[in-house]
């Protein structure tokens, strides 16, 4: 598998992101890829696992990681394959929903995390919820933030259709500007540049271009049945579930109610809809989301 590896120099001097890079290899043989992750705090402490999505990387969680470590937790945030400091296969055909699940599952098994508090946003949920269904015994609780687990049985809303069309037509594909457009509190130019850092040019963008096309949009999509199967497991889990959504996220509007209805552990929890938060709520209300999560951990 042909892949690119973004030069380390592009990640130097990023404000509020001075975490030591950590790496594991996922996949086998010629398909082996290096996956980057942040791993802060005591290794024996209860882990908070933060999963990013499109088109971001672990930098998204820079304002939350210190709050978790200060509270005594282990804070772990990987970069998905194709993103951040992780390797980036150059062919869009190398990326499938299942390949992303497999890469992330491989990483999680190697990390051997237990008692996980999972925070998942965007594709972090489309993947993280699959891992929860695969390995429920590893997880203690779930924070669902502006994400979904679609099965292709419901039509996509117009906001998602517009985003998907834009993601394919945009020239250039500017990850930083995309994040800027999905926040209420506007990013600085340095922050925009940090989201663009993983992608020196178009050849590095195969994963980011492909992600929107992998969301199941019809009942016969290759990921549709695996996601239905995952929902069957999720409906039967009793782990505590907190939804934390941004009121200004048009793509994910109302999906928090799906989790509140379908997951038993969501009953009676202090779900939150942040009024001044968009899709990338880690940028808009990151510290507040971390504090809500810490309170959720303490109460469950």
TrEMBL record:
PANTHER family: AB HYDROLASE-1 DOMAIN-CONTAINING PROTEIN (PTHR42977:SF3), HYDROLASE-RELATED (PTHR42977). InterPro entries: AB_hydrolase_1, AB_hydrolase_fold, Epox_hydrolase-like, Haloalkane_dehalogenase. NCBIfam families: PRK00870.1. This is Haloalkane dehalogenase. Its EC number is 3.8.1.5. It comes from Thalassovita autumnalis. The gene is dhmA. Signal peptide: none annotated. Keywords: Hydrolase.
